[in-house]
Design brief:
single chain; about 475 residues; alpha/beta; Rossmann fold; UDP-N-acetylmuramoyl-L-alanine:D-glutamate ligase; Protein-Tyrosine Phosphatase, Chain A; six-stranded parallel beta sheet; about 35% helix; nucleotide-binding; EC 6.3.2.9; ATP binding
Length: about 475
């Protein structure tokens, strides 16, 4: 974990006119290219450097904007002389170039931190190990339906920096990962949502859950008494960290196990939200998002809406007609009475647990990919109850076989999305669900989880 360098150069850059000051951007993906454009608009001399190759669409944008860049390596002297460096979230602090920058006290910040200086919009920031994309999308859907002038950014959609440069939104709904939070220092969330904390990405946090949890709690830093902090009262790790923490914002918990005075809770199959004079109630049967995990996502989204004093009618309508996001429990097709669900975004065991927990039929489960040190033990009970066969989709499936060979009669290895879909189709019967919910990263056989999900959907449509 890096700490923010303290140096004479570390002043309020937003107040300081750039006057050709040099800024370097590490990583030329969505966030890096957006940050480069904003920096150029604000008068900085900009240099973009990517250790790998740059995708053609991003390369064209940089060329069109006449922004200097390099790929397939870093030229140290062109980076180490920058006043400040904006780092893409995928680059770890232990990368040699980042270590050199920190050693010489050059501020290294995230795109969110950089772009946040140049907008007065209200910030609604959502983090958590699971559910953040769904919750971010639902909050955005509610706010947009309510007629607010709102942008959607962070880990989702167009980069925040690019939107700050080209739009004039009054509100932003930002999906924030722990990697982004690690390089955010002065940024302030007006509404912070922390959904849950479960082991994920521990390779970036010295394999210590407490380090990862501390990173997630950075979403509350810089909040004031005027702000709101929304959290899950049922999440043990969240509560544990909060016991030793001072949080300035108003605390608004949500729970499905107990009544909450100010916040959200479940009562007689209704979501109930009470915020001072604001009251909201909705039957869980009317929610577009079903499953226990989605009750939490809907509660968190509803609290955000009530903090913003939106009308109950708008919230109820939006929560009832929201369409699930691509690659997250996305219905693909029904073939011969068999439902096919694409949950490719489930890149950790917890996400797969949530997916299985929401299933109401027998399941043929497609699992596998790059294992991030997964503990499959937490899936065993659900697998025993609901899974009739497992189709492995990955180069090395040994740990999946070892984990479930006593619980599932059929475990089959496949090496492509097409093969996995075909095998699963033959193993399933009418009324069953074929669920792609891999619990693993995708880059052994695919470019990313989106590529995996798209290939799966194409394969299903060819059955």
């Amino acid at each position: 974990m890096s700490t923010q360098p303290t140096s004479s150069a570390h002043q309020d850059f937003a107040q300081k006119k750039a006057n050709g000051a040099r800024i370097a951007i590490l990583g030329a993906g969505e966030s890096g290219v957006g940050a480069a454009y904003l920096a150029q608009q604000k008068g900085y001399e900009v240099f973009v450097s990517d250790f790998g190759s740059i995708a053609d669409n991003y390369k064209k944008q940089l060329q069109d904007w006449a922004i200097d860049f390099e790929e397939n390596g870093h030229t140290q002297e062109l980076i180490l002389n920058a006043l400040e460096v904006v780092k893409s979230p995928g680059i770890p602090d232990k990368a040699p170039i980042v270590k050199q920058l920190l050693a010489q006290n050059t501020p290294v910040i995230s795109e969110i931190e950089f772009a946040g200086r140049y907008t007065d919009a209200k910030m609604i920031c959502i983090t958590g190990s699971n559910g953040k994309t769904t919750t971010t999308s639902l909050v955005y859907h509610i706010l947009k339906n309510a007629g607010l002038n709102v942008g959607l950014a962070g880990n989702i959609g167009k980069s925040f920096a690019y939107q700050v440069a080209t739009e004039a939104y009054d509100h932003y709904v930002l999906e924030i990962s722990s990697f982004m939070l690690d390089n955010m220092y002065k940024f302030r969330a007006n509404i912070a949502v922390l959904l849950n904390i479960t082991p994920d990405h521990l390779d970036r946090y010295d394999y210590k859950l407490e380090n990862y949890a501390a990173s997630k709690f950075r979403i509350t830093q810089n909040q004031t008494a005027e702000d709101a902090y929304i959290y899950c009262a049922d999440d043990a790790e969240t509560i544990k960290v909060m016991e030793g923490k001072q949080i300035a914002a108003e605390q608004l918990p949500f729970s499905i196990t107990k009544k909450i005075e100010t916040g959200a809770y479940l009562e007689n199959d209704n979501i109930v939200i009470n915020l001072h004079q604001q009251h909201f109630q909705m039957s869980i049967t009317e929610l577009a998002l079903q499953g226990k995990h989605n009750l939490y996502n809907s509660m968190a989204s509803g609290i955000v809406a009530k903090v913003l004093e939106l009308r109950n009618e708008t919230i109820r309508e939006s929560m009832g007609n929201f369409h699930s996001i691509e690659h997250r429990l996305e219905f693909v097709a029904k073939i011969s009475g068999i439902s096919f669900i694409n949950d490719s975004k489930a890149t950790n065991v917890n996400s797969t647990w949530y997916a299985l927990e929401s299933m109401t039929t027998d399941v043929v489960l497609i699992l596998g990919g790059v294992d991030k040190g997964n503990d499959y033990g937490m899936l065993r009970d659900l697998v025993k109850q609901k899974v009739k066969a497992i189709v492995c989709l990955g180069k090395d499936n040994k740990r999946i076989h070892d984990a479930f060979e006593d619980d599932v009669e059929v475990i089959v290895n496949t090496s492509s999305a097409s093969e996995a879909a075909q095998v699963a189709y033959h193993l399933a019967a009418k009324g069953d669900t074929v669920l792609l919910s891999p619990a693993c990263a995708s880059f052994d056989l695919f470019k990313n989880y989106e590529d995996r999900g798209k290939q799966f959907k194409e394969a299903v449509k060819e059955l």
